[in-house]
Amino acid sequence: QSALTQPRSVSGSPGQSVTISCTGTAGDVGRYDFVSWYQQHPGKAPKLIIHNVSQRPSGVSPRFSGSKSGNTASLTISGLQADDEGDYFCCSYAGSYNFLVVFGGGTKLTVL
Amino acid sequence: QLQLQESGPGLVKPSETLSLTCSVSGDSINRSSYYWGWIRQPPGKGLEWIGSIYYSGSSFYNPSLKSRVTVSVDTSKNQFSLEVTSVTAADTAVYYCARHFYGDFHFWGQGALVTVSS
Question: Which of A48, A95, B15, B55 could form a disulfide with A99 if both were Cys (CB 3.0 to 4.6 A apart)?
Answer without folding.
Answer: A95
